[in-house]
Amino acid sequence: MAAPELPAVLTGRDAAADRVALARLVSFQRGTPLDDRVAAGREETLAPLERFRDRRLHLAADAKPWRRVADALVDSALAQPRVALVPEAEGERRAGPLMRDITVSLAAAALPEPDEIDLAVRWWELARREGLPVDADFGECWRAIEWLSLAQALEALGRGPVEPAAVARCIRVSLRYGQLKPLLPLLQPLTGVAPDAGYTF
């Protein structure tokens, strides 16, 4: 029997629909074997960040502030347990970070941060009950989700137009974690905010 797939969007408004969506995601992650699913390695995980760098920042590959941030994001993603990922195309068979699909779903819902956290807590509680290898500390789980969300926002900025919501997410997450703060002055061309002027996102 095929594992259930996650509906495209969490609402943050329809509690019943969100419970179903989260339960289906956890069921998919718990019940779908990795078998021959292809998991992205370091180079594949880094490649979308490098596309962002090349398109938006025009930095050398070894620019130290960028490299520190990119390496931290890649290390965080690769440190997560691997699970089957919800397919984006028919016949697709991929594996990836445990928090990847909940992160994608939260971003697609475009919710205020308190609602994102509430849904993330619900997913985490379900995942723990069902035996998925989530951290016992939700704070660590949320950090991993935020770092993945930053990587995903950078990837989106690297392949599409400059969306204010993606830039705002990059700034919000980078402000919160010391390892990611070197990204802030690099984002200045996208924000118009001088590095020493502070951010209000």
Question: TL;DR?
Answer:
The protein is 59% helix and 4% strand.
Tell me about this structure:
This protein has 201 residues and is mostly helical. It has a domain at 40-81 and 98-191. The chain is built from nine helices and three strands; from the N terminus they run H-E-H-H-E-E-H-H-H-H-H-H. The chain starts with 14 loop residues before the first helix and ends in a 10-residue tail after the last helix. The model is unreliable at 194-201 (pLDDT under 50).
Strand content: under 5%
Question: Main β-sheet, in a few words?
Answer: 3 strands, mixed
Number of strands: 3
Q: What is the averaged pLDDT score?
A: 89
Oligomer: single chain
Tell me the layout of helices and strands:
Layout: H1 15-31, E1 38-39, H2 42-57, H3 64-79, E2 82-84, E3 94-97, H4 100-109, H5 113-129, H6 138-159, H7 164-176, H8 183-186, H9 188-191
Parallel strand pairs: 1-3
Antiparallel strand pairs: 2-3
Essential attributes:
mainly alpha; 3 strands; globular; disordered C terminus
